[in-house]
Amino acid sequence: MRQAVGQATVFGVVKADAYGHGAPAVALELERLGIDGLAVAGAAEVEELRDAGYGGRILLLGGPESSADLDRVVRRNATPVLTRLGQLTAWSAWLGRSGAGAGEALEVVVELDTGMSRAGLKLADWPAALDHLRSAPEFRLAGLMSHLAESELAASSFTGEQERRFAAAVELLDSSERRSVQVHLANSSAALRGASVRWTAVRVGGALYGLDLATLVNGSETPALRPVMSVKAPVVDVRPVPAGAGVGYRRTWRAPDSARIALIRVGYGDGFSTGFSGGEVLVREERCPIVGQISMDSLTVDVTRVPGVAIGDECVLLGRQGEQRIGVGELAARAGIAAYEVWCGLNRRLPRLVTGAPAAR
Length: 361
What we know:
TIM Barrel; Lyase, Ornithine Decarboxylase, Chain A, domain 1; 13 helices; about 30% helix; about 25% strand
């Protein structure tokens, strides 16, 4: 990402348990690699990173939901993102009551709604908010940001429209503010492709974990990106099944001929969705079909065509084995969900084993 974005500040997005990868371990590794800061979505995520030993900058995207959350965020040295004009008055009152910061100005990042229509300060309210921040000694404007709605769509004209709206908002900053305020619009896909939308900082989520959504939408490739997550489990049983026998609940799959069925102890209780039923896994470097319904704690695989499959063999549900690979896009397409949802759905019942990096502090 450093090579792609040049001198821009890089914020790593580690919300939702680092997109399901394990936020504490990811945060500490990114800190070791020199990330400029991290971004999360909730106060509890701020606390988790601080408790894990991450000492760098943290942005709270979406802003705190209450005064209690603001208190939790500020006391753990994170920067709140302002999304509504009324928050300025509420935050000022909280600062007066709490004494947080002992007279030091609270750093604030302002999010603008340039067309996502989801969150962010209305563009019409930006001049008033800027005047308020300039006149209120309890605040210091540290950043200005917005979200792109269609950055992964190569033919999108709306990305250009959002950029123009955002640029007009940046124009209201004076020369001193332009030197001190970090300005960021680009997410992963935009940061990789659009020099004009990088401004002084970028927020990188999916690309950190090896996925550029534009590759799924446009069929292009980003060779420098490699997925960092694999999901693997051992074969715990292999049994012969006669022709016509049903497998799993409701016997939705019946063996057309005599078959050999392998049992894997991963199921929808681990976040491996029933929507992945009918897909494939890798065993002994061969693609093997998932047969029958995926259960809460297990799934069954037809290994009839793969000789020698035995208890203890590695089964890859997501990732690479030899020359074969099951990608997150493949699982997402089968289940009809977003690619990031595949990662985020893998819950903490599946242990995360960190490889190729120093142990967490």
